[in-house]
Design goal:
- By secondary structure, the protein is α/β, with parallel strands linked by helices.
- It folds into 2 domains: 1-55 and 90-135 and 188-272 and 450-509, FAD/NAD(P)-binding domain (3-Layer(bba) Sandwich), CATH 3.50.50.60; 139-181 and 281-358 and 385-441, Cholesterol Oxidase, domain 2 (2-Layer Sandwich), CATH 3.30.410.
- The protein has helices at 25-36, 52-55, 60-67, 105-115, 121-134, 146-158, 194-200, 253-263, 326-330, 338-346, 387-405, 428-431, 491-508; strands at 2-3, 12-21, 41-44, 82-83, 99-100, 137-139, 163-164, 166-168, 204-206, 209-216, 221-229, 236-250, 276-277, 281-287, 302-304, 317-321, 350-357, 369-372, 378-381, 410-413, 420-421, 443-444, 448-449, 474-476.
- The strands form 6 sheets. Strands 1, 2, 3, 9, 10, 11, 12 and 24 form an 8-stranded mixed beta sheet that branches.
């Protein structure tokens, strides 16, 4: 059963076996498996209950306020990094670009060595296989759209590694509107798969309910306190929702999760919110004679990991394409006025390719910090400096070379005053440019860490069973438990870990 905020006309107080906070990649998978095991499951979701009928005419002006955190305007405290993150039933799976990778074995090996996490590829294999079957995760068999073909052609011309991506789609119309909500239910997002499974098995989902705090007793969580929100806004009503579960699962993400724990007085020996990772993204644009129409076609179908492992003190990065619907392109924030008019006029001939830095793997890389401001609102601090700045310079160079090798007539950076390159002879312009926060656009659509799992209680607030240390009946199952970034898009890692974690939670229920 789904109960929307507008249907909650009086305060709610109820008990259940398990309360899951958040309905995205982690929460939905856990909800389905726990409900199938016969447990009484309640899911609380801050966002609204939206579906195919709402997405049938994709509209950026509607989608960003309705489907994204902070109406699509979430950013770090210094406004140096734009944060794209879902806020709807199904979470970010409703608006992501469907790219799926299993967790790389080199990352699992790193977690074992550095964090004591004994999750190897063989342990996760049956869980990945299960979610791949349920979500129809398979290589994209359709030729790439022109935007992704730029990445393919450029890498091929340079002799660089590249591959076809796997996507969680079935009956995909190849429209390109994944980031706005799928208009044909081709994307196998949580609201039509695992959440639907959970509800069929008897789970109850409350949408438009923001969890404000967790109430603690002696080493146990006793209640989850929420408030009904006005649909499509950040305004709370006076209607309260209180759930008293035997077990609580936090699945509200790598930013909202740590903030909730801190509001509840849970700081995990000062580690909650620390080691937050972003895969910080930089983009380089290419203008082509032929039409690219970067707003149509599967958003991501080609990637390159040519530079994923570099020197021992250098950031690795991986490369993908990014769709360019008009509002998304305009919100990148590097051109205004006449420059923005010019970009919109040229947009059908523009390709965007991106490089994502792999943070948290190099020695001494602590990523960012999620905290609370004096008024209780979330604070996101993410420094970009030193080796990461060098990595962004190298990433710009690689992206520019791909565009030139693919035949771009003009290559443009997203600096405040964009650099323009027309031939390889112009590449030294990048060597002399400045990089980092406020020098050019930086984005993140991947948020990880902040409630890291691991063996050491002094470093990891979440234990190896995904239980929050010191609170026996509180589990964390989402991207916040990842000890580092992944070097691949994180959705399938979260699906797989959630599928694995569900067995542990059932055994303790």
């Amino acid at each position: 059963m789904i109960i929307e905020g507008s249907q909650i006309t009086a305060d709610v107080e109820r008990s259940c076996d398990v309360c899951i906070i958040g309905s995205g990649a982690g929460g939905a998978v856990v909800a389905a498996r726990l409900a199938a095991a016969g447990l009484d499951v309640v899911v609380l979701e801050e966002g609204g209950n939206r579906g195919r009928a709402d997405f049938v005419r994709p509209n950026e002006r509607w989608s960003y306020p309705e489907l994204y955190q902070d109406r699509g305007g979430r950013a770090t405290d210094d406004v140096g990094i734009t944060v794209l993150q879902g806020r709807t039933v199904g979470g970010s799976t409703v608006v992501n670009w469907t790219t799926c990778f299993r967790t790389p074995e080199r990352i699992l090996d790193h977690w074992r060595r550095e964090h004591g996490v004994e999750l190897d590829a063989e342990t996760l294999r049956p869980h990945f296989e299960a979610v791949e079957q349920r979500l129809s995760i398979q290589p994209w068999a359709v030729p790439p759209n022109p935007n992704n073909d730029v990445l393919r052609r450029g890498c091929a011309a340079l002799g660089w590694e590249h591959e076809v991506l796997r996507r969680n789609v079935k009956g995909c119309a190849n429209s390109g509107f994944c980031g706005l909500g799928c208009p044909v239910d081709g994307k196998q997002a949580m609201q039509i798969t695992y959440l639907a499974d959970a509800i069929t098995q008897g789970a109850t989902l409350y949408s438009d309910v923001r969890v404000e705090r967790l109430e603690l007793g002696a080493s146990k969580l006793t209640a989850v306190h929420g408030v009904v929100m006005e649909r499509g806004s950040s305004r709370a009503t006076s209607t309260r929702v209180v759930i008293r579960p035997r077990i609580t699962v936090s699945s509200c993400g790598a930013l909202n999760g740590p903030a909730l724990f801190l509001r509840s007085g849970l700081d995990g020996l000062g580690r909650v919110g620390k080691r937050t990772f972003f895969h910080p993204v930089v983009a380089v644009l290419g203008e082509y004679e032929q039409p690219i129409n970067p707003f149509y076609g599967a958003p991501q179908s080609v990637s390159s990991h040519e530079f994923i492992e570099r020197g021992p003190d250098e950031y690795g990065f991986f490369m993908e394409s990014a769709p360019m619907q008009p509002m998304l392109a305009a919100s990148a924030g590097w051109v205004f006025g006449a420059g923005l008019d010019d970009l919109m006029l040229r947009l059908p001939h523009v390709s965007a390719i991106i490089a994502l830095q792999v943070d948290g793997v190099l020695p001494g890389d602590e990523g960012g910090v999620v905290g609370l401001r004096s008024d209780g609102r979330m604070s996101i601090h993410y420094p970009v400096r030193g080796r990461m700045v060098d990595g962004m310079r190298d990433a710009h160079l690689a992206l520019a070379r791909i565009h030139l090798a693919a035949g771009a007539k003009r290559v443009m950076t997203t600096h405040a005053t964009p650099l323009e390159l027309r031939t390889e002879a112009d590449l030294p312009k990048l060597e002399g440019a400045t990089f980092g926060t406020h020098e050019h656009s930086i984005f993140t659509a991947h948020q990880m860490g902040g409630l890291a799992m691991g063996a050491d209680p002094s470093r990891h607030p979440v234990d190896l069973d995904l239980r929050f240390r010191g609170v026996d009946n509180l589990f964390v199952v989402d991207g916040s438990v990842l000890p580092t970034a992944l070097g691949v898009n994180p959705s399938e890692t979260i699906y797989g870990i959630a599928h694995w974690a569900a067995d542990k939670i059932v055994s303790m229920a």
